[in-house]
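USER: Fancy drafting a protein?

ASSISTANT:
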Amino acid sequence: MSSSSGTPSSLELASKRDGPYSGPGRSGKGYRGLNVLLVVVGRVRGTLAEAVEEYERRAGRYWKLEVIEIEGASGRDHASDRVMRVEAERILARVPTTFDLIALTRGGKAMGSSALAQYLSDAMVRASPGVAFVIGGAFGLDRSVRDRAVRSLTLSSMTLPHEMARLVLAEQLYRAGTILRNEPYHKGA
């Protein structure tokens, strides 16, 4: 929702299809000094859309969160390499070269919630300009994106639809913020 002045409300997400948008965040205590960028191929539709929006909103309480949705390239199975190349160009054009790029892939390394919170905390301590999490399309991420990544992260050894991966990542970013602020949401060790 936008106010009558045309500025976005504080509940709007920092998200805009194929373009950066830095909407107003909730100010206050916390770790909002770190820029966290989610670059994702495709939009979330259907039953998961509301949950994704809610967890991205919650994560935005802790991080300067920006979500960029990249339009997926079209193609058939025989054109998967071409599709991934086109998507990679779109993805890499949106990720600042100074940001740590974390590629979400099925073959990446697992990281627990506390370890993710520590990684983000360490990024703030070393004054990193930001961290970009990248979720690919139906065929995954092109080698150029994986080569640019400082880390390859898996959310599960199972293949997840990009919508589900986005939901899990958003929840984990929210959880990481609560861990760092010692809030009661996280019950794990």
